[in-house]
Specification:
Elements (H helix, E strand, L loop, with lengths): L1 E5 L10 E7 L14 H13 L7 E5 L8 E8 L6 H17 L4 E5 L6 H15 L20 E5 L6 H26 L7 H15 L2 E5 L1 H7 L2 H7 L7 E7 L8 E6 L1 E5 L19 H16 L4 E11 L11 E3 L5 E3 L7 H12 L6 E6 L3 H7 L4 E5 L2 H14 L3 E3 L17 E2 L7 H10 L7 E5 L5 E2 L9 E2 L4 H13 L1
Parallel strand pairs: 1-6, 2-4, 2-5, 5-6, 9-11, 9-14, 10-11, 13-17, 14-18, 15-16
Antiparallel strand pairs: 3-4, 7-8, 8-11, 12-13, 15-18, 19-20
């Protein structure tokens, strides 16, 4: 689907469906810049009398035969006071789903306000692409025949002022949303297909398409580097581990280096510390942090950012077997530190330990990791926000701001030194779990042992990486959480 921005009258251009957005209490779908013709006013008079404009509410109005447009979709925006771009993103998601159901191949939409059209254009493009997402490659026969999304979507601005900036913003919205949909695809793909090798090949494909560099380490290379924590998790699986390095070189000589690290556990049974069977199928989503990092680099390559951005994704399955690591084992990491494995189901932090230590060789200005790390995060924050823990106040504030702007909200938790006692080990430098109290915090403190002195932020996305709920921009399954947030952060950092 191609999103375009125009300043022409929406009532002079033929589309299969024209959307008019209505605030609660309003009785109009357009600004003074583009007054509707008399035939349209007449067709809308009755529907607007009954339409309330509540968020997600829709109603179809039909014009006279031969009139333009023939079908007008009313879409509710909610209250005008406090209206924000995220509300328009959701309304665009509602629009594209309705357009798909109506088999509309060309869609127009009237911008509801002349204020902040740049942000609204970006939100519109994001909502149209996120709302049109479907994952059905494994459906066959009648189950696979579903309505398709529109080919084009045009947002009509109330005037020509700012049209060029709005078009650039819409392009940005398209890029980040389609990249988020890539992360959704990776997360939703069953783990018998989405293996470590599959993720590595995906990274190589992204590199070719976006002109990035990609290196994939195999087991032998990891052994030479002594990545004992990552290799320890991989021991129980027949699938070979992979360590992905995807790199955007940047476009300026004095570019900062930002390293992104994503947990790539392609299936997590818990290992010897086996999980209960209920909902274990959801553990295909345990690589959503890694999927987000690959998708972020896909967006970065398209946007041509000036900074040097590196994505590191350690990938393996976590399965029980005769060679699997056991509770009580001690592994030696790339950093040289040793870890006592108390619980093999606390495996994500093990593979991240080696990846975070590897990040040091880039002398990064900042490192951000994304991981479905702890069930404790879900207990603390539910499914409405990810957890943020980090060592740098400026980095933390910037990520919190990006979360608010994109609607991918995060909430900061403390990593006070008092919690560290919970991960002290008798036989090794550190143990891989501190028990149930403050589980998300002690997991972050475990990771902190391997970061050195670079600014670091940890995003625990366990509660938001996939969902059982639906919304105008989200189906059940992987959410792509973190892609829009981190891309927004990277853009903001460059702008400053």
């Amino acid at each position: 689907m191609k999103v375009t921005i125009k300043s022409d009258s929406p009532f002079r251009i033929r589309t299969d469906l024209l959307a008019g957005f209505v605030f609660e209490g309003d009785r109009s779908i357009s600004s003074d810049s583009h007054p509707p013709p008399e035939a349209v006013k007449k067709a809308l008079r009755g529907p607007l009398r009954d339409f309330r404009g509540r968020p997600g509410e829709t109603m179809i109005a039909y014009g006279a035969d031969g009139s333009r447009p023939q079908r007008i979709l009313l879409v509710g925006l909610g209250k005008k006071k406090g209206f924000r771009p995220k509300d328009f993103r959701a309304a665009a998601g509602t629009l594209v789903r309705k357009a798909r159901d109506l088999s509309a191949r060309t869609v127009g939409a009237i911008c509801p306000t002349a204020r902040d059209t740049e942000a609204l254009a970006r939100a519109f493009a994001e909502g149209m692409h996120l709302g049109s997402y479907r994952f059905d490659p494994y459906k066959t026969g009648a189950n696979g025949k579903k309505p398709v999304a529109p080919r084009t979507a045009t947002l009509f601005l109330p005037g020509r002022k700012g049209a060029r900036q709005a078009a650039s913003a819409a392009r940005l919205g398209e890029v980040v949303a389609t990249s988020a949909n890539l992360a959704r695809d990776l997360g939703n793909t069953p783990s018998n297909d989405a293996t470590p090798t599959y993720l590595a090949r995906t990274a190589q494909g992204i590199a070719r398409k976006r002109k990035l560099s990609c290196r994939v380490m195999n087991e032998a290379e990891m052994k030479r580097l002594r990545m004992g924590a990552l290799l320890g998790v991989a021991r129980g699986s027949r699938e070979k581990p992979r360590f992905i390095i995807l790199e955007h070189r940047g476009k300026r000589a004095a570019a900062e280096t930002i390293v992104l690290v994503g947990k790539g556990i392609t299936f997590d049974s818990g290992g010897i510390s086996l999980k209960p069977p209920l909902k274990m199928e959801d553990m295909k989503f345990d690589m959503c942090g890694g999927a987000a990092v690959l998708a972020i680099l896909d967006a970065v390559g398209q946007l041509g950012l000036k900074n040097h951005i590196v994505g590191l994704v350690p990938c393996t399955e976590n399965l029980p077997g005769g060679s699997a690591q056991k509770p009580g084992d001690v592994v030696r990491t790339l950093s040289g530190k040793t870890i006592e494995v108390i619980n093999t189901d606390a495996e994500g932090r093990l593979i991240l330990a080696d990846a975070l230590a590897y990040a040091k060789r880039y002398r990064p200005a900042a490192v951000i990791d994304l991981a479905t790390l702890t069930g404790a995060c879900i207990i603390a924050l539910g499914h409405h926000a990810g957890a943020l823990m980090g060592t740098d106040d400026s980095l933390n504030r910037a990520l919190l701001g990006a979360g608010e702007r994109t609607g991918e909200r995060i909430w900061q938790l403390p990593i006070w030194p008092e919690y560290k006692k919970q991960i002290e080990s008798v036989v090794a430098d550190v143990k891989n779990t501190g028990g149930r109290p403050a589980g998300s915090i002690t997991a972050a403190l475990f990771l902190k042992e391997f970061i050195g002195d670079y600014p670091w932020a940890h995003l625990d996305i366990a509660g938001v990486a996939w969902t059982e709920m639906t919304s105008p921009i989200q189906d059940k399954g992987a959410t792509g959480f973190g892609v829009r947030l981190v891309v927004d952060y990277l853009l903001d950092r460059e702008a400053k």
